[in-house]
Amino acid sequence: MPARDFFHQAVKNALIRDGWLITHDPLHIEFGGFDFFIDLGAESLIGAIREGKQIAVEVKSFAGASSLSDFHAAVGQFVNYRLVLSKADPERVLYLAVAEFVYKSLFATGFGQMAIEAHRLRLLVFDEEQESITQWIE
Amino acid sequence: MPARDFFHQAVKNALIRDGWLITHDPLHIEFGGFDFFIDLGAESLIGAIREGKQIAVEVKSFAGASSLSDFHAAVGQFVNYRLVLSKADPERVLYLAVAEFVYKSLFATGFGQMAIEAHRLRLLVFDEEQESITQWIE
User: Which of A33, A75, B16, B77 fits a 20 to 30 Å CA distance from B70?
Assistant: First the structure.
């Protein structure tokens, strides 16, 4: 099992506050002879629209030396996990959890926006100090 | 400029042997306020069909502790570089260079083949000892 991301607990707390039940920590999927571990699996407990909605959340801190390398790695994980989920758990929707400051410095840039659109990324933006979700980007 | 990949020189030699002129080492693209460095840029000198064809090659050794993490990172680099090239240098075709043993253990698996198709990966498979290209996967 891979090491937990630095913001793992903060995102978990933010989801619980937002009305989600954490069902998997991590979400383990065995597929094609490989073991995939997505950080969290959760199910919504409240909200008329999203009740029963199942999500998978990969938490990325972007704590590496090159934020662009982290960006590539996060995009690769996202598109591969989405591919595996589409076969193994097609109802579950995948999100990449990134802190506000990462969203602003990378994802909100021209290149970041282009990548979000081209790769159809879904983001959960969180405030790491408040441990709250500030934005869902679909 | 990022550190050169372990197999950088082997791929460069394999390309030269195959009739390519190395035009960039690395290929630097400035886009949207970020600097992207793709390992190699090359142009074909021979071959009726491919004469003048321009390529960009990202070399991946997969020398990390988890080959699946390396796989995610390589896929992320590939789809992001392809996105940037489509805007900044649309005639140039991007390839991921991987050694035979990596191709067999990862890309030739069921999951690997599914990822190649879903992400439309292009591969240049090389023999790292012979320093020769064994397969182009389009």
Answer: B16
Task: Give CA–CA dist B68/B66, Å, rounded.
Answer: 5
- Structure confidence at residue A136 as a pLDDT band (50, 70, 90): very high
CATH fold of B8-137: Trna Endonuclease; Chain: A, domain 1 (3.40.1350)
DSSP code for B71 = H
Q: Tell me the three state secondary structure of residue A119.
A: helix
pLDDT score of B8: 95
Tokens, residue A68: 């662009």
Lookup: tokens for B23: 């035009």
For chain B, percent of residues with pLDDT exceeding 70: 94
- In chain B, residues with a C-beta closer than 8 Å to the C-beta of A84 are 111
Residue B1 confidence (pLDDT) above 60: no
Residues 6 or more apart in contact with residue A108 via CB below 8 angstroms? none
SS3 A121: coil
List, as ranges, residues 69-108 from A with C-beta within 8 Å of B: 69, 71-77, 79-80, 83-84, 87
